[in-house]
Amino acid sequence: MARTWHWVGLVAGLLTLALGIVAFVWPEATLRVVGFLFGLNLLVVGVARTVVLLFSSGYPTLNRVVGIVFGVFVAIVGILCLRNVAGSVALLLLIVAIGWILDGIAEIVLAIGSGESGRGWRLAFGAGAIVAAIALLVWPGIGLTAFLFIGATTLCFLGICLIFVAVAGLRSRA
To answer: How many Å separate Cα 94 from the centre of its chain?
Structure first.
């Protein structure tokens, strides 16, 4: 099952990186499209984390429970983004920031409880998500352009981290 998780993580990392690149290349995207894409990303990541941890025995029980709870919360935040994609920029920024904080905390908890290779990348992923979320919360008036830049940069960074975690896991199991 751990090998399956690494493949799921690799696909999630590639999709996250691709989404970040699309956000860079397509900056004139409307709030509706951006809100949908970020919401979809949070929903997919939250569901994937929850499903994998439900069926994975490679982590201590407490870490799995925390990861599952945060995965569910991340998925719920993604659904909130999808339900109100035309909402205000401030609301979208808040929802995305909360999702990134939850996902960052989950990654850090899993990295601490895991004996797997790639723990440093998991810690970087978690810390990067939390730092980006704090930046969005501290500067809510930065506007959509800055949000797109920060969001696209964050997605590229997080996608690369997920890819490295997955590749490290697949290499260690080979």
So the answer is: 15
The DSSP secondary-structure symbol of 27 reads T
Q: Which residues contact 32 (CB under 8 A, 6 or more apart)?
A: 85, 86
Q: What is the dihedral of CA 86, 90, 92, 97, to 10 degrees?
A: 180
How is residue 108 written in tokens?
A: 């850090």
Beta-carbon count within 10 A of 77 CB: 25
pLDDT in tens, 45-81: 889 888 888 887 777 888 888 889 989 998 998 888 7
Domains in the chain: boundaries: 2-173
Question: Is 150 within 8 Å of 136 (Cβ atoms)?
Answer: yes
Contact assessment for residue 16 and residue 168, using Cβ atoms and an 8 Å cutoff? no
Instruction: For residues 100 and 130, give the distance between their C-alpha atoms in angstroms, rounded to a whole number.
Output: 6
pTM over 0.85: no
CA geometry: angle at 84 spanning 82 and 88, to 5°?
Answer: 125
* Residues 174, 105: Cα–Cα separation, whole Å: 29
Residues 6+ apart with CB under 8 A from 55: 1
SS3 96: helix
